[in-house]
């Protein structure tokens, strides 16, 4: 058969082989022939690739002299000559709009949701297409947080917005907080208010919703007779119902607590700061059994020694096989913890000479095109 051997392979075998290639190689394969181009945009290939896709970093750099957006792949092996972790910039690119990546982001199946006031975007940097999501229904409330994900059963992609406002309770003559929730289903072009907003009477949420197992999660404070207890608010994207659970105990009320997803588990990072510099610690909690609040486990405790400047909202990005941890602090710089030396240092994951703010979020690439799931106007770039 010689050179024509590939033409005799069943399409499912070709899909299995191609879905294991690096991103750049897959893009090149689209140019081989029309049959491969059709195969690489098929739902079968998209599903196969998503199941095998390896998480990396989506990086945004505030430097006007370079392309600001990059996808960085992890290289787990250590360089035997310098004992340094290596990063591989798979590609860099510009977007046709300028939306800095802040804490207000979420991602699902390779689709990124980016937002700032009055500007909402869903984008796939791999397939190079995006849609602009309309502004939520008219509301006098202030945008508090957004979240983005896909429901477990129907596979519907949804944007969830939470809003709050301060009101005066006339009988009590006291200030109260009212909240509402709105949901945007991709493909419908419109927002819906959720009648039973589970965030009612919640004061605020710190960050965008952490997406895991078809649910969005927020770390919030609720106002009740006992003060301001901390809770985890969970929104089921399938049923569109809220529930609450308890976070792990707070060891230091003066620290910064941040909710995220790490290694397939719900993660709470407690960046503690005590009056004695030698007692600065980072505690990383994992919910080992999803949905079981009793399964919270303090998986890592990192001594910061005298690095008081590392105090702030901190998000673990990846735990490497040797126990090293890559983290993001205050959405502007990356920290690397060496399990061998028990030390923390600042790192540059982009490989550039950028001296400004660098933001990195965990991102799993896919070839899911918005054209297959959206009725809205999809724009290519």
From TrEMBL:
**Could you tell me which residue ranges the F-box domain spans?**
3-49
Q: Please name the Gene3D superfamilies in this protein's record.
A: 1.20.1280.50
Q: What PROSITE patterns does its record include?
A: FBOX (PS50181)
PANTHER family xref list: BNACNNG10540D PROTEIN, F-BOX PROTEIN CPR30-LIKE
Name of protein: F-box domain-containing protein
């Amino acid at each position: 058969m010689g050179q024509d051997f590939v033409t005799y392979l069943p399409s499912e075998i070709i899909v299995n082989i191609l879905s294991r290639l690096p991103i750049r190689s897959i893009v090149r394969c689209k140019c081989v022939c029309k049959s491969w181009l059709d195969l690489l945009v098929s739902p079968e290939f998209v599903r196969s690739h998503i199941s095998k896709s390896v998480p990396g970093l989506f990086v945004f750099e505030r430097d006007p002299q370079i392309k600001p957006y990059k996808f960085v792949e992890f290289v787990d092996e250590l360089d035997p000559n310098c004992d340094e972790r290596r990063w591989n910039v798979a590609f860099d690119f510009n977007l046709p709009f300028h939306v800095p990546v802040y804490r207000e982001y979420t991602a699902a199946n390779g689709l990124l949701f980016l937002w700032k006031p009055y500007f909402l975007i869903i984008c796939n940097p791999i397939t190079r297409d995006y849609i602009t999501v309309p502004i939520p229904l008219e509301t006098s409330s202030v945008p508090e947080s957004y979240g983005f994900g896909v429901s477990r059963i129907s596979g519907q992609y949804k944007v969830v917005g939470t809003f709050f406002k301060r009101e005066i309770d006339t009988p009590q003559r006291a200030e109260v907080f009212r909240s509402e929730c709105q949901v945007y289903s991709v493909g419908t072009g419109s927002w819906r208010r959720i009648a039973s907003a589970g965030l009612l009477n919640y004061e605020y949420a710190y960050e965008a919703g952490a997406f895991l197992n078809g649910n969005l999660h927020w770390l919030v404070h609720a106002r009740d007779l006992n003060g301001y207890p901390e809770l985890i608010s969970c929104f089921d994207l399938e049923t569109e119902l809220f529930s609450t659970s308890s976070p792990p105990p707070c060891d230091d009320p003066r620290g910064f607590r941040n909710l995220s997803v790490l290694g397939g588990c719900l993660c709470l990072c407690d960046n503690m700061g005590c009056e004695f510099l030698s007692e600065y610690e980072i505690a990383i909690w994992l919910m080992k059994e999803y949905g079981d609040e009793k399964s919270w486990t303090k998986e890592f405790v990192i001594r910061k020694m005298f690095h008081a400047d590392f105090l702030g909202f901190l998000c673990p990005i990846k735990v490497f096989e040797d126990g090293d941890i890559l983290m993001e602090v205050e959405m502007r710089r990356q920290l690397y913890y060496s399990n061998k030396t028990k030390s923390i240092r600042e790192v540059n994951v982009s490989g550039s000479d950028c001296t400004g703010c660098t933001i990195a979020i965990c991102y799993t690439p896919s070839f899911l095109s918005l054209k297959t799931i959206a009725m809205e106007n999809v724009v290519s770039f």
